[in-house]
Amino acid sequence: MIDKKHNQELDFLKDGPWDELYVLTGHWISDLEFYRDDLRFLHHLIDKYLMWISKSENLDMVNKLKNGLFDLGVNVRDLLEKIGKHRIQLGQIVENFNKADASIIRTEHEHLEEEITLFVKSFRNNRKEVFTITEYVIDSEKLATVMDALKL
Predict the structure, then answer these.
(1) Taking the domains of the chain in order of start, what are their residue ranges?
(2) What is the pLDDT, as a whole number, of residue 15?
(3) For the segment 31-55, what is each residue's pLDDT rounded down to a tens digit?
(4) Which of 33, 49, 65, 102 has its CA 20 to 30 A from that of 1?
(5) What is the mean pLDDT of residues 57-83?
(6) From CA 119, how far away is CA 79, in angstroms rounded?
(7) What is the pTM (predicted TM-score) of this model?
(8) What secondary structure does DSSP assign to the chain, as a single string?
């Protein structure tokens, strides 16, 4: 029974959907580039209102947000680099199968999948927090009134 399971695993590794995983990593890269661009927008949004903040507690909240966005930016750059290297390995295994490499690449792929899931969850929470705090700061600082007056 163990031999049969072991043989199935080896067959999967050899005949595994390496080309599909290669395509999937392309989608991951595209998604992460979108998140990277969205992080730039969120930084811009915060910077736009930062100069109008007068209350220290609001400034502290915004600075905490900026630090979180910075960390996400580092994380997304790291993930893009890891996925780029992983994608090259997948391309190589499609061209020239190596059983030893296949097992490592499969494990790496699963780990990257988990990292991306955690990043997306963190990104969504942070993005929601940016909009919530931005709205709070605008209301508490009466920035909406100031900005409307500046438009006149």
Answers:
(1) 2-142
(2) 55
(3) 999 999 999 999 988 888 777 777 8
(4) 102
(5) 93
(6) 9
(7) 0.78
(8) -HHHHHHHHHHHHHHS-HHHHHHHHHHHHHHHHHHHHHHHHHHHHHHHHHTT---HHHHHHHHHHHHHHHHHHHHHHHHHHHHHHHHHHHHHHHHS--HHHHHHHHHHHHHHHHHHHHHHHHHHHHHHHHHHHHHHHHHHTTHHHHHHHHH-
